[in-house]
Amino acid sequence: MKINKLYIAILLSAGVALQSCKDNSFLDVPSKERVEAEDSETINTPEQFVNGIYGMFTDWDYAFSFLGVTEMLSDNADKGSSATDAGGDKLLLDNLTYTSTAGSFQSMWIRWYKSIGRATQAIDYTEKFGLTDDAYKNRLIGEARFLRALNYFYLVRGWGDIPIQERDLIKREPASEVYTYIEADLQFAIDHLPTKSAYAAKDLGRATKGAAQGLLAKVYLYQSKWQQAFDMAKTVITSGDYSLEPDYATIWRLAGENGRESLFEWQARGSSIAHGIQQYSQVQAPRGGAVNLGWGFNIPSKNLLDAFNAEKDNIRRDATIIFRGETLYDGRVIDNGVENPMYNEKAYSSANGGASDTDKNVRYLRLGEIYLILAEAANELGNSNEALDALNAIRTRVKLPNITVTDQAQLRQLIWKERRLELAFEHDRWFDLVRTKQAKAAMAADGKTFQEKMFLFPIPENQRIQTPEMPQNPGW
After folding, report:
1. Residues linked to residue 288 through DSSP beta bridges, in sequence order
2. What are phi and psi of 321, to 5 degrees?
3. Which of 146, 261, 401, 419 could be stapled to 245 by a disulfide with Cβ–Cβ 3.0 to 4.6 Å?
4. What share of the chain is helix, strand, coil (3-state, %, to 5)?
5. Is the separation of the CB atoms in 259 and 42 below 8 Å?
6. pTM of the complete model
7. Span 107-124, pLDDT tens digits
């Protein structure tokens, strides 16, 4: 089958070309930036086209720029590395002194729009390919629409009103319209994707019905659509497809990969599959000393450590933070010569150590968060019993006492605090601070000044140069 030349305009033109996959992995997909007719011999199936969307999560952007705009901005993390290494714009992000020229915002703006372009192209290609198995065709389209929704979700949370690429690259659509578009993609995915257990072993890690339901619950949460968020979270929890991992620390180890609690993970298998998630673990691994595993960026803040200690939350603290002088669960010693006192244990790769190709899956969405979505939504609906049941299920796992507060305002604060401790270094803290309007107070408590304009990211300056008709966010 021949393909006409396709060009997807995303800041710069971007698309995808895929080569054939190995039988044992749906992620072995080297990519280019554009699909052209001369590439047609290497593109054999719609499935390979869809695989290329997943491959977008393995890029270097997710090892550095992503960390900057999701973690280093927040009170959970500091820049790390050495004092003399600014990490490009990472020191500016950490200090909240960034501008619209910050490279991390540009990198992720491009990455997320490229991923959307790849997903839309895969949908179009699959629809026109001539597949006669409708269930299979719709499954592939459902996967692509789930992944497209995920990328739009990052964009709308960060920038608010954004272009919907499939309509008009230049026009910024209202955030409410973008959310409606995301919801439609996710509903299609829910209607056509199989459950996690229905996939063959070789396809483990693909988007599932539960993943789409969980993401939709989160999308509703960020819009304060409390009843819809409650209903969708409840659907996931009662489906029987997932259960909480009894040992919190196991979630982040090999034994927890794609485990009972996992709704969706970015898949990585080191050098045996493309390049895994390129340098995600290495960038965050302990720096210096005899161990010298990596670059030491994105380190836990004292503010986060104090939050764990104030709650006497030793289990989640010790699963989240690598301490100087610690002997890790696998026997590796983090000697006293390392440069920083703490590092991110959720990014630690036991098998690969400091290798640039990582075997560490990034846990994007898991049942623990779904319980907390249900708790928050239930509390906003005035259902403190449901809220406390969900909240205490999370606390019981880490041997913390049950919460009994039923006052809505007090319980809201406790649920928000639980989200921080449960989900630390899972790339949502900044968005949660913005969503809940806690950002100004939280950043002040961390010694930093949050300005009103920071509720939205700045449109990258290079995008504004290329499309000056696209309005900038207020204050930037």
Report:
1. 338
2. -115, 130
3. 261
4. 50, 10, 40
5. no
6. 0.91
7. 999 999 999 999 999 999
